[in-house]
């Protein structure tokens, strides 16, 4: 519905237990991990000198913060800031959920699962790792420590963390009544393209304030794009003109914006500046058939990234609404202006407008 490509692998941690156990054993053999008083295996963060470099947290501060919350003599590990790699089995808590391992039966910690799966599928070092800002610490910080301690190589070249979504200026919550699923929005009459457009309007490191007004604005922007695409498709004239310079400039600016930490907001602004310039050329009759095709090709190129352009997406207009248009035209031909206005108003009440063209009146979603 949102035109999101499927990824190549959807791993389940339970399918990688051998890899998880092997990684934990390697960390123990290298002196980065130890068995605690409760028979669980912990990562000793003091052994990893650069711990905290992603979240910019100081190890001493972490120790102080943890010590203020937990009495050391009540803890089962050497340091309150160490994290679990393998949780030893507890019959009352775990029931039938456990795996056998060289360090006793139990189950893996959350962090080690991700490192083992990433290592198995993508290798020792990966180019890009994404996640929400809430994953930076402790999850991603722990992933770095255990992965690099195990392999001895740099784990991730580029980290990208997305900010949270808020609704009407407040955190999304069922208790506040501002919780929406995609299905909810579709039932309200919005489309996947409109939702995708709205989600793309804000830079990934900036909080997105999700509002119904924003969805309505997204709809208007997509209508503007659809109007231009239909206009370009309808050009048949031969005009001795070129848009090569405009296309080259726009393509360069679009790529430059995306190259600046995925500045999608700027990239979309550049696309709509192109829309404005193309409409101006069309208004002046300065765009021929060949240029129109080049313009459509350029929009298609951008849409490989944006994924919301309304190409070949004709709105399925209900037969009842089409019937109103036919009756309106019949009334106009009979100079029955009262009935013509009546059917025009019915069309408008159902969310459509009438656009006159050389081939006759057309219905369009407002």
How many domains is the backbone divided into? 3
The major β-sheet equals: 4 strands, antiparallel
Provide the residue-averaged pLDDT.
91
Query: Which runs of at least 5 residues are low in confidence (pLDDT < 50)?
Result: 67-75
Q: Proportion of β residues? A: 5-15%
Instruction: Label the CATH architecture of the largest domain.
Output: 3-Layer(aba) Sandwich
Our Rg estimate from Cα atoms comes to 29 Å
Number of strands: 11
The H/E string reads HEEHEHEHEHEEEHHEHHHHHHEE
User: In CATH's first tier, which class of the largest domain applies?
Assistant: Alpha Beta
Biggest sheet: strand arrangement: 1-2-3-4
Return the structural class. alpha+beta
Helix-residue proportion: 40-55%
Quaternary status of these chains? single chain
Number of helices: 13
Shape designation? elongated
Task: Provide an overview of this structure.
- The protein has 13 helices and eleven strands.
- With 366 residues, it is of the alpha+beta class.
- The chain has three domains: 13-162, 3-Layer(aba) Sandwich (Rossmann fold), CATH 3.40.50; 193-306, no CATH class; 319-365, no CATH class.
- A four-stranded antiparallel beta sheet has the order 1-2-3-4. A three-stranded mixed beta sheet has the order 8-7-9. It has a two-stranded parallel sheet with strand order 5-6.
- It is elongated, with a radius of gyration of 29 Å.
- The two termini are 21 Å apart.
């Amino acid at each position: 519905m949102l035109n999101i490509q499927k990824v190549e692998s959807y791993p389940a941690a339970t399918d990688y237990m051998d890899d998880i156990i092997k990684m934990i054993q390697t960390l123990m053999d290298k002196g980065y991990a130890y068995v605690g008083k409760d028979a669980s295996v912990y990562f000793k963060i003091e052994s990893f000198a650069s711990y905290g470099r992603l979240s910019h947290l100081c190890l001493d501060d972490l120790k102080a913060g943890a010590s203020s919350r937990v009495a050391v003599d009540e803890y089962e590990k050497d340091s309150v800031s160490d994290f679990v790699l393998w949780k030893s089995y507890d019959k009352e808590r775990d029931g039938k959920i456990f795996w056998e391992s060289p360090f006793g039966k139990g189950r893996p910690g959350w962090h080690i699962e991700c490192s083992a799966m990433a290592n198995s599928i993508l290798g020792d070092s990966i180019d890009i790792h994404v996640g929400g800002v809430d994953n930076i610490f402790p999850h991603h910080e722990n992933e770095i420590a255990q992965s690099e301690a195990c392999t001895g190589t740099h784990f991730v070249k580029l980290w990208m963390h997305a900010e949270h979504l808020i609704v009407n200026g407040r955190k999304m919550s069922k208790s506040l009544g501002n919780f929406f699923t995609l299905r909810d929005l579709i039932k309200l009459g919005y489309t996947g393209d409109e939702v995708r457009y709205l989600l793309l309007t804000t830079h990934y490191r900036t909080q997105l304030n999700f509002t119904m007004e924003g969805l309505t604005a997204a709809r208007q922007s997509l209508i503007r794009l659809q109007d231009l695409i239909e206009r370009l498709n309808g050009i048949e004239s031969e005009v001795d003109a070129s848009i090569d310079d405009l296309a080259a400039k726009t393509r360069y600016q679009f790529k430059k914006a995306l190259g600046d930490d995925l500045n999608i907001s700027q990239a979309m602004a550049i696309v709509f500046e192109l829309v404005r310039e193309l409409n101006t050329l069309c208004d002046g009759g300065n765009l021929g058939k060949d240029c129109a095709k080049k313009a459509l090709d350029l929009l298609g190129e951008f849409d490989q990234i944006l994924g919301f352009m309304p190409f070949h997406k004709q709105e399925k207009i209900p037969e009842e609404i089409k019937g109103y248009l036919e009756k309106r035209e019949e009334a106009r031909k009979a100079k029955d202006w009262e009935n013509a206005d009546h059917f025009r108003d019915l069309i408008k009440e159902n969310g459509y407008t009438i656009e006159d063209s050389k081939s006759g009146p057309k219905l369009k979603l407002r």
